[in-house]
Recover the amino acids of this structure.
């Protein structure tokens, strides 16, 4: 492997990492907004939407922080965080699918889950 190839791989790794962190940030924002729009004294389904939205926002925010740290977790720790984020985002998207008006939030969750999957693939 030449130094140029390793530099290109490093740049691609950093771009993928940034793209994943950006998707996590967008998802966290969308989920926090969706959760804030739900009546806290609403139906059981509304409460589920609110709780899932808050959880997803927190997990995405934590994942973004992990991806932003220079001397953070090792590769295995990052992989575990990404898998957790992907799983929570998909769960949240499924709940949002059942809630009228939450389509954009569900889309942000799916895009974040995909970004996590894509980044996990670079860690293999």
């Amino acid at each position: 492997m030449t130094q140029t190839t390793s530099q290109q791989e490093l740049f691609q790794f950093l771009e993928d990492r940034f793209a994943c962190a950006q998707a996590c940030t967008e998802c966290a924002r969308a989920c926090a907004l969706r959760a804030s729009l739900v009546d806290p004294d609403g139906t059981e389904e509304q409460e589920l939407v609110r709780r899932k939205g808050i959880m997803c926002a927190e997990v995405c925010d934590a994942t973004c922080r992990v991806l932003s740290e220079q001397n953070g977790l090792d590769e295995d720790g990052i992989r575990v965080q990404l898998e957790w984020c992907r799983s929570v985002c998909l769960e949240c998207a499924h709940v949002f699918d059942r809630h009228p008006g939450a389509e954009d939030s569900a889309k942000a969750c799916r895009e974040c889950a995909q970004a996590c999957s894509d980044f996990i693939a670079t860690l293999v």
The chain has a mean pLDDT of 90.
